[in-house]
Design goal:
calcium; A middle domain of Talin 1; YccF; mainly alpha; 13 strands
Amino acid sequence: DASKVPDSRGDSDGPRRGSLCDRHCAAINNVHGDLGDLGCHLHRPRVPPAVSTPSCCQQHSEEVCESCVVKTTLTAENAVEANKLSNNYKFGFKKWKSHVTARPWEDRSEIVKELYSDLNVIRGPGGSMLTCGNVLYLLLFGWWLSLLYILVAAMMFITVMGAPYGQLCWDLAGYFLWPFGKVIQKVEVPKSHQECEAGVGESSALLGGPTPLRWRPRCWMGTGYWHRASTAVWLCLGYPVLVLAHGLVCVTAWLLIVLIPVAKLSARATSRVLLLPPERVLIRRLRMTEVPLEGEVILCCYRAANPYYYKYAVDGINVFAVNLLPLVLVTLVLGYVDSPNHLTGSAVKFTLALLSIMPLSYYIGMAIASISAQSNFAVGAVVNATFGSITELTFYITALIKGSREGNRCYAEVVKSALTGTLVGCVLFVPGLCMVIGGIRHQEQRFNSRSAGVSSALLFLSVGGVFAPTLFSKVYGKLVCGECHNVTQNPLGHYLCHNCHFDLMDNNGTLYYSHVQPLVYTVSILLPAAYLIGLFFTLKTHTHIYDIHISDCHMPGHHHSAVVHWSRWRALVILLLSTLCMSACADLATEHISPILTNSTISQYFIGVTVLAMVPELPEIVNGIQFALQNNLSLSIEIGNCIAVQVCMLQIPILVLFTIFYPTNFTLVFSDLHVYASMFSVVLMNYIFMDGKCDYFQGTVLVMVYFILLAVYFFAPSPSGC
C-alpha cells in the first residue's frame, strides 16, 4: 500500500533506497484489479519522476528487486463479494466475472440504472425521438400492432356493450404505432363517479367540477368493474387476441436483447393497461403544456433500443444465458422424442446439443462461484476440483462409451483431438484474443509474471507427462503400414506406403501391456499428485506470490449486508440440474455426431480441435475478455492456463482411470500432429509471457499461430480408424 512505503527522504540511505526499489518494482508489476462492475480497487505505489530504473537496480542486489511482488488490495462491496474476488486469484479456482451478490442501486452507473428502471418515469426532453431503434420498432411491430388494435376496436364497437373498450383500443392504436414521447396514466376516479357507483347523488359534471370527457363517469356501466357486461365482452373477445399479440412482441423483442424496452412495454401494457377500466386510462403527449392530471404513470417510453442491454441480468444471470435456456429444453425434447429423425436430421440435433452446452456451462460456472464465495477454502477447493471440468468430461466419457459399444475407434480419436484442441486453444487463442481486445483499450498491459510462471511450470510438467507414453511408443513401437506400392518397380527400390502407424500390439500385445500401459497408469497417478502439490504451493506455503489483501473498509454506501443471488442450496441444486442436462446434451451430441464424422469431407481432427474443444469454453473466453478490458490481464492469462493444466492433470487421468472400470478404445498415445502442436504452443506461450508485459501485437502473434495450426488440422487426413 502506498501509505506503507517509507518516505524517500529518510535518515539513512538504506531505508531510502529500499523504499525506492519497492516502489520501482511495484510499478513494474503494476496490475490493475477488478474495476468498474466488480468494485475492486488496486492501490499501488507510484514511482516519482526523479527515480530512474537503472539507479535503483544498480544500488541493490537482484534478489531484493526480484522479491517485489504485486501488492493488490481488493475493496469489495461485502464479505461474500470479497471472497469471490479473492478466489479469482487462487490457483485451481474458476475465475468468474459476474457478481454473486446484488449490487446496491445507488452505486450503479446511470447507464445501468436505465436498464433496470421501469417505463414509468417522465424525463425532460432528451433529444429527437426519430432514432434508428424507434424506426426499427415501427417496421417490426408498430404498424401491425396498431392495425390489430383498430380491428379489435371495430369488433368491440359492433358488440355495442364493448363500446368503451372500442374507444380505448382506438386510442391505443395510435399509441402503439409510435409510443415514443407519449404517456399512459391511470387517472383518479372523481368523487362524482364514486357517488354514482354507490348509488348516492347524481352523475353531473356540475357536482364534480369540470370532468374530462375521456373518463366522465357513467352510471349505466354497472356498480363494479368486474361485474360489468362490457368487461365480460372485453375479456372474452378483445383481451385474449391482444395478449397473444403482445406476447409475440415481448418474446421477439426479448430475444433480440437490444429491444428489451419494447418487451417491457408490451408486458406492462398487457398486465396493467388492458386490465384497467377504460375511463381510468388517459393517453397524452409529453409536449402538451397543460397541467398533467393527478394519477399514476403506467407507461412512458422514449427509446425502443438500448445497445447496453448486453449487461442486463435476471437474478444474477446474464440475459444471453437466460435466452439460451429454452434452447436446452427444445434440444432435449426434440432429441429424445424425435429419435427416428422424422422432424430434423442428425446435423441439426448435433448443432442444437452443442449450442445447449454453452448456457449450461455458464450456469455451472455461476453455481461454482456462488458456492465458493459463500463457503470456506476447503469446500470451495473441492467444488472447483469436482465440477470445474464436468462439462468436458461429460462429453468425453459419453463419446468413449458410444465408441466402445459400436466398436468404432473414431470416437476415441475425436476425444483426443478435442483434448488437444482445448489445450492448444487455451494456451494460444484465449490469452491471445484477450491481449488483442485488451490492447485496443490499453497500449501495454502488465501481469504478475511469477504467478503465471507457476502455471507455466505445471503446464510444462503436465504436457511432458501426458505425451510421455506417446514418445515411448515412438521409440519402441513397430511401424505398420496399411498398403505399400513399389514406386521404382524394383524389389529393392522405394515404396510408397499409406495409413502407417506404430503397432503396440505386436507379439500378442507384450509391448503395450507390459510397458506402455504401466507407464500410462503411473503418469495418471503422478499428474494429479503434481496438481495437488501446485495447489498446496500457491495456496498455502507461497501465498505471497499473489499477495491479495482484502481491505477492511468497504466502498462508500456499502454498509448493508450482502444479498446473494443464489444461496448455497439453490446454487447446489442448479449445479446438479445443469450437470444432468449437460449429460443429456452430451449424449445427444455423441448420438448424432456419427453421420457428421462419416459423411463430412472435413478432417475429424479439425472437428474435434475446433467445435468440440472450444464451444464448451466460450463462457470462459467471455470472462477472459472482460478481465482484459479492465486491464486485468493476469486473470485472463490464468483462465487459459488453468484450463490447460486441468486438461492434462485432471481430465486425462480421469479418462484413463475410467477405462479401468469401463474398457474403451481410449489409449494415452497421441498422433504426431497432436504432440508437435501442443509442445510448440506451450513453448511459444512461455516465451511471450517471459517479461510480464504484453500488447496487442504479441496477442496477434498467438492468434495467428493458432489459426495456422487450425489450417494444418483442416488439411490433415483423417485419423486411422475413422
